[in-house]
From TrEMBL:
Compositionally biased residues, Basic and acidic residues: 48-65
Keywords (A to Z) from UniProt: Calcium, Coiled coil, Collagen, Disulfide bond, Immunity, Innate immunity, Lectin, Secreted, Signal
Name of protein: Mannose-binding protein A-like
Location of region: Disordered: 31-107
């Protein structure tokens, strides 16, 4: 019976409630209130409405307190070296050391040994200086006790002679076939004739070494020396290894010799 009653009451309410609201006489007789049934079961919540628009940004707040320091980062690479600082003041003078024992007097034998050592060191130093200058040149070849060297430069006879002398040598003076062949190798490599330390400047037709003395070995080309136009007082070596008298003012390959 309850479901039927409930339905019935819902129908009656649907008909009378609008009538009661529009008629004040009925409300005064409590007719409307007497016919209202018990409250119904609450309905389900409706769906949420759409989100509203974001409001405008508010004013900037006050500056907050300083936060606690973070962890220390990894050390970066070292920077460039700075300028040298000013020189410091001299330190304090140290204490004086104890006096050493008196040495024995040198004997004549000791003096001789010292002199011999000094002479040996002097010779060694001179040889070292010569060798150091030789190594400044690009190519070095050895024959017996002689070293022949060149850096490929060309000069006139007098300049070539002085250059070799400056570095402790002499302009090449071949006195054997083997020595002549070494100089020929330089001439062939650089494709340039080389001046020899030989000339007849002092006496025409009488060739001698720049260290004085008549030449003891020759390798003249056929028809040479011919003193062409009376102006050929120096000697050059060509690629074949043969010699030819030449004008001293022309430029030729510089080959120096050293006895080390």
């Amino acid at each position: 019976m309850r479901p039927y009653f409930t339905v019935h009451m819902l129908v009656v309410n649907a008909l009378l409630i609008p009538l009661c609201h529009g008629n004040p006489d009925l409300t005064s007789t409590n007719v409307c209130s007497s016919i209202q049934g018990p409250p119904g079961v609450p309905g389900n919540n409706g769906l949420h409405g759409r989100d509203g628009r974001d409001g405008r940004e508010g004013p900037k707040g006050e500056k907050g307190d300083i936060g606690s320091p973070g962890q220390r980062g990894v050390q970066g690479p070292p920077g460039k070296m700075g300028p040298v600082g000013p020189q410091g003041k001299p330190g304090l003078l140290g204490t004086k050391g104890q006096k050493g024992e008196d040495g024995r007097a040198a004997t004549p034998c000791d003096m001789g040994r010292v002199a011999a050592l000094e002479a040996g060191l002097s010779t060694l130093q001179n040889n070292f200086n010569k060798l150091e200058k030789v190594l400044q040149l690009l190519q070095v070849k050895k024959v017996g006790q002689k070293h022949y060297a060149t850096d490929g430069r060309v000069m006139n006879f007098e300049s070539a002679r002085k250059k070799c002398q400056t570095i402790g040598g002499l302009l090449a003076m071949p006195k054997t076939e083997e020595e002549n062949k070494v100089i020929q190798d330089f001439v062939s490599f650089y494709q340039n004739p080389a001046f020899l330390g030989i000339s007849d400047v002092k006496k025409e037709g009488s060739f001698e070494y720049i260290t004085k003395g008549s030449i003891t070995y020759t390798k003249w080309s056929q028809g040479e020396p011919n003193d062409y136009k009376g102006k050929e007082d120096c000697v050059e070596m060509v690629s074949s290894g043969s010699w030819n008298d030449k004008n001293c003012g022309e430029e030729r390959l510089v080959v120096c010799q050293f006895e080390i």
